[in-house]
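Q: What would this complex look like in 3D?
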Amino acid sequence: MPRNEIKIGGFGGQGVILSGYILGRAASIYDSKYATMIQAFGPEARGSACSAQLIISDEPITYPYIVAPNVMVLMSQEAYSKFSPELAPGGILLTEEDLVATHNLRADVRHFSIPATRIAEELGKRLVLNIVMLGFATALTNLVGRDAARNAVKVSVPKGTEELNFAAFEKGYEYGLQLREKAPEKTFA
Amino acid sequence: MHADPIGVLTGAHFIDGDHACSEGAIAAGCRFVAGYPITPSTEVVERIAERFPFVGGVFIQMEDEIASSIAIQGAVWGGKKAMTVTSGPGFSLMMEHIGLAAMTETPCVFVDVQRAGPSTGLPTMPAQGDMMQARWGSHGDYQIIAIVPNSPQECFDLTIHAFNLSERYRVPVMMMMDECVGHMIERVVIPSADKIEVHNRKVYDGPKESYRAFETGRDLVPSMVKAGDGYRIHVTGLTHDEKGYPDMSVSAQGKLVQRLMDKIRIHTDDIVMYKEEDVEGADVVVVSFGITSRTAIPAIEQAKAKGLKVGHLRLVVVWPFPEKRIRELAGKVKSIVVPELNMGQIVYEVERCAAGKCNVVSVPHAGGTVHQPKDIFAAIEKSLRGT
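A: Here is my prediction, written as structure tokens for the whole assembly.
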């Protein structure tokens, strides 16, 4: 697997950083890959659009920042407006269906969306929307294996909430898998 | 000696460089930290404050950096291993006490997570602008050791090494991190306690009457006692004799300062640490340190792909500087390229050692982010023109 650059964006409180953290932890601890995560610090990290930047690779990671992300997971309209122009041509764009209206969607990216908030609400906690998105991203990319992601979820969420988070992960994963099977282009990052 | 298992979180973690530094300190046996939290080093003391109650450590959030840097020295003379943690503006305030630690031979660790300066500069963004300050910031002549990690894993490993060196040579040791490495999250593997070597200061336990606090053997490093052990000790920043008492004579000054310099100089070969790749037969060698050693790699690969013979020498310990090795290299290569996140500091050392024997090219950067590999690549190419 070559160097993959992932940007996860949303607004503060959605668990943007945590989902990036779990993805990186899955890759580097449970999948024996290399992962480097950089968070946005400073005023931009406090309110408005916040983001986690992650690099996942089979090789040691040298340059630590993302240059042209090939995978983007966006959970808010502002994050979509701000970040989606950075997505590399041919990149995979994953959005929260009800929170992001994909105006002027670029023709050169592959877009998939999921009503993650609604799914999370059906599970009883809107809070787990980020884990639904994580399951969705796990299914629609080859960044990390399903078991690795599940293991990382288990050790990263508050004790006592594991089952709820597993359920959220599985819902997102299943939803993503169905879209993946229907997708015309079969190669994924 | 090995680490005390109580402080060692054995396993594979996904943590940032700041937290890894805290874990390294705890594994090394540090049980006293005083600090005045400042971005981007805050996470170090945050984790220390959270973890210390479980390992019997004491963390104090002090009124400022001046107080922090002297509190740790009190703790050391009370028998603890201690460190303080800061960034540029706080590091500036600590300069006086770095000199005091050097003069009183108090083993302690100063962590500086560098951000772009001068003054308050860019609090949340990286730089490597404190490298000369670490070496020369306090007045007078003295020697210190400075270590520069380039990953969270090294923040763990090298913080242990920093404590070990400070205990062995009784000097302040600087952990010169930067914002990028401090806030970057990567895998950090913490081995079991029996795999972690920990060095403790030499302790004097001979007869009380013949104890001389600053008497040394051939290694020039005195043995320590701690306050309360019943030995007569006097610790002062004034020039002192072997007993530790002030001695305002030219001969005492000459003897003491010479030894403070020599105790590092005679051990330089043991202390210097650098990593080389493809240096033999190279036309150009890139000399880098810290985060810049990572941004240099894509540039070096690009140059190699174009057929250039490029090697890489990465300084892990920057002070003392590996003069001997740079002199050797300068006689063999056509040029040395020195990228650093400052306007040119370590390049002066390289130039001094190269002494005109090869071309030396600086790749400066005012900080705020890291180098673009293409800028380092351009410097590699340029360095060969006219050689």
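A: To summarize the key features: The interface with chain B takes residues 21, 24-25, 28-29, 34-39, 41-42, 61-65 of chain A (CB under 8 Å). Helices of chain A lie at 16-30, 77-83, 116-122, 129-140, 146-156, 162-182.
Q: Very helpful, thank you.
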